[in-house]
Amino acid sequence: MNLSIATTSIGGHLILYIIDDNGATILKLRNFDSGTVMLMPGHTYRFEWHVWGIGDADYGIQAIVDPDNPGFPPFNYSKQYTGAHRDMGGFFFTV
Amino acid sequence: MKKIMVTLCLVMVVLIAKTQKGPQEAFQNEVVESAVPLKHSLIKNSYSPFKAKLSSFMTKISLTSTFSEGENARADLSYVPNKDSNVLVGISVDQKIGSTGGQATPFTLAEGISAGTTVGFNFAYIHWKPKLSSVAFNNFNQSADAFAKRNNTDRRSVTYIDIRNNGTDEEKKLLPRLKNPVFFNLSVAFTKTSFSFATDSVTLEANDASYITPNINFSVGMLTSVTGYLALGYSYAGAYTAATDISFTSPFGTSGNFVNQTIAFGAPEKQTDNKISLQWSNMFGASSSIGIAPTFTVGLTSKTAALTLPVYFIKGMADGKPNGLQGGIQLGYLTATDNGSLIPFKDGFGVQLIIGVPFDVFTALK
After folding, report:
1. In whole angstroms, what is the distance from residue B285 CA to residue B353 CA?
2. I need a surface site. Which of B32, B172, B235, B319 has the fewest CB within 10 A?
3. What is the DSSP letter of B44?
4. Do B227 and A88 touch (CB under 8 A)?
5. To the nearest 5 percent, what fractions of chain A are helix, strand and coil?
6. Percent helix, strand and coil across chain B, each rounded to 5?
7. Distance of residue B207 Cα from the nearest chain A Cα, in angstroms
8. How many C-beta atoms lie closer than 10 Å to residue B148's C-beta?
9. What is the ipTM for the molecules in this complex?
10. Interface check A69 vs B, CB under 8 A
């Protein structure tokens, strides 16, 4: 099964990683980007993103697994920041 | 509020005392100029404390221009060539215009680059690899799990700032240390200047000469916090200064009259300077009401050192609303370093008023 991700970044910088259970990065996206990576059933992956900016910024992350999988419901994330900012988010998931 | 600001400015004027003496004043002016943040907007022009340019990485390509009649005209072209948007290359053209000048002509086919024109090239790179270690991410995950459960919120949308602002002490303790970007900036500029001077005291024949001098700046900086930036830089600058003007009185033909003319006698003298600077910019207080940018600069060629501390606390107003810190005071100390001892503090200390110069922690990033 495949995990497809699209990222948007307006006014700031965004990096998103998909990391397998060996700690290796299997997908890296920056700012306005998109990518697809193959997932192995039964494996645990890390979904991790970081943002920073020196002014107002708007970020978006959309991710979906095909075919649908209860281990990863569609993820639709967006956040706005006012002024200088440095933030991160992330979670583990198993398909 | 306006009365309070005016009164405060008047008090600052009374307190101004400039006690610096000696030939280092020219160096001090350069140090002050490079230490005080310059007037540049976030997206357009960005200058580090060391006059190196670090433009915005937000747009793929940008072209900006400014024109100040009787002063100078400037155009900047920036391009982000890579997909990661962490490399930026740029070129700039800046021309000084005479006091009566109404247009800029930096280049002509007949003469090439015009006198008073500076052509600059800039390269900037952001190094940012924020991926957490397994241990650090596990700690974050544990903290976010607890936060989401306690607040009955979507776990996947919990972020570092959510926990830092609204988490319990136990949740905050698990937050990892985030890696901030490091900025590298290199700029090389060439300036053409023209001089007219005489070397023959009998004929007073005018010699016209043009010189091209380089200006190199390199800086490395990093975010120390969301509102703090630390930068180390090196700059090399070369310039030619005109010889002293001398007045000559010469016979005017065979009329028996005399004509007086003032001419620079002697070829221009080349001067160079190497400087190393360390600056830390930060904002404090509620609503970032105070901004500081202490800078330590060492002139390797001029054998001088300066420590400046601009403190911004006066907010500017635009359309009746505050629009950031626009003024304050600058404390400075300048000393020679060539004789092994420092100038007495009272002789090297000076205070200046900062008016209408916007303070921005990230001047070096803009």
Report:
1. 21
2. B319
3. S
4. no
5. 0, 70, 30
6. 20, 50, 35
7. 51
8. 18
9. 0.96
10. no
For A1, which DSSP code?
-
What is the distance between the alpha carbons of residues B19 and B36, in angstroms, rounded to a whole number?
19
Mutate to test the interface with B, among A10, A18, A88 (most CBs of B within 10 A): A88
Closest-CA residue of A relative to B43 is A11
* pLDDT for residue B117: 83
Q: Measured between alpha carbons, how far is B328 from A16 in angstroms, rounded to an integer?
A: 41
B163 close to B198: Cβ distance less than 8 angstroms: no
Segment B106-161, tens digit of pLDDT: 666 666 667 778 888 989 898 999 999 999 999 999 999 999 999 999 999 999 99
The Cα-based distances of B67 to B56, B81, B94, B201 in angstroms read: 20, 28, 10, 41
For the segment B208-233, what is each residue's pLDDT rounded down to a tens digit? 888 888 899 999 999 888 778 899 99
Distance separating alpha carbons of residues B122 and B117, to the nearest angstrom: 16
State whether residue A54 sits within 8 Å of chain B by CB.
yes
Give the separation between CA B90 and CA B64, rounded to whole angstroms: 11
Closest CB from B128, B131, B140 relative to A25: B131
Contacts of A33 in chain B (CB under 8 A): 83
Is the pLDDT at B63 greater than 70? The verdict is no
Q: What is the DSSP letter of A70?
A: T
Q: Say whether A50 and B178 touch across the interface (CB within 8 A).
A: yes
B181 CA: distance to closest CA in chain A (Å): 9
Q: Cα separation of B112 and A40, whole Å?
A: 64
Taking the CA of residue A86 and the nearest CA in chain B, the distance in Å comes to 6
Contact call for B137 and A90, based on CB within 8 A: yes
What percentage of chain B carries pLDDT values higher than 70?
68
Q: How far is CA A4 from its chain centroid?
A: 10
User: Taking the mean position of all CA atoms in its chain, how far away is CA B62?
Assistant: 20
Please name the helix (run of DSSP H) or strand (run of DSSP E) that holds residue B170, with its range, or none: helix B169-173
Does A31 lie at the interface with B, CB-CB under 8 angstroms? yes
